[in-house]
Structure prediction request, 303 residues.
Amino acid sequence: MRKFIIDTDTAADDAVALLLATSKNDIEILGVTTVCGNVPLELATKNALAVLEVGGKNIPVYKGAKKPLKRELFTAEYVHGLDGLGDSGLSHSKRKPEETDAVDFILNAVKKYPNEIEIIALGPATNLANAILRDSDTMKKVKRIWSMGTSGQGDGNVTKVAEFNVYVDAESYDIMLKSGIPITIIGLDMCLGESSLTNAEREKLKNNSKKGLFVYKCTRKIVEHNIKTFNKNVADIPDAVAVACALYGETVTAKKDFYCLCQTVNDETYGGVTLLDNKAPNATLVTKFNAELFKKILFESLI
Prediction:
């Protein structure tokens, strides 16, 4: 049975991703680790606990980094709402996070299951970078990191070149890319367009189940943001796309190896990831994704 750790800065698309992941019964999710990003760490942790409760899973949650390695935290409440879950009163849970730090948990899990642990990274790479800096030898025994990050072969969503997760902490993303750990990247270009939920699809989810209603409510602010900014009545859910790539390999229809170079200079290139095919690769980039199959799997998982 495949073993996973999910690292998340839990906002709305992370919530959909967690519900998708926890609906799959033939994998083992050892724990959820939280990191600052979309929202501050305490809120990301609170949201993760709330989503797991909706998913009916008693998976332990471990708090991680509350700030990036070198920069001030940049958050995305302007997309997800002040509470990260659409300002719909969804963030409540009776559970508490574990006392163990996220980095300690990750390292201990990898030591216990060398070359078996896969990490799905849905937020900034700060927790992973801290684990690599603390014990790089142990982290090299991570089987694979699945990273929702970079703009892929398209444009960024914070700057022309930078995608949010990398932009929040490019120094950490750079450390992850240079770690020697096998990495599969699901870029922003795979997560927009047909991979986004239309208004009709959200309405269908609302009437589908308790989980579907939760998804409808928590993505409300994403829709408002996209209407205001792009005049598009859709909810993009990149983290759910990343989980689909990790758990349902049939959704990935093409991929390519690249040497990925993360820009950490504090100027207009910060957070951009350059894709080079003339050097030994350090990551695999998903280049084609079956959005129709993804939505079929997603709807079935939210029953």
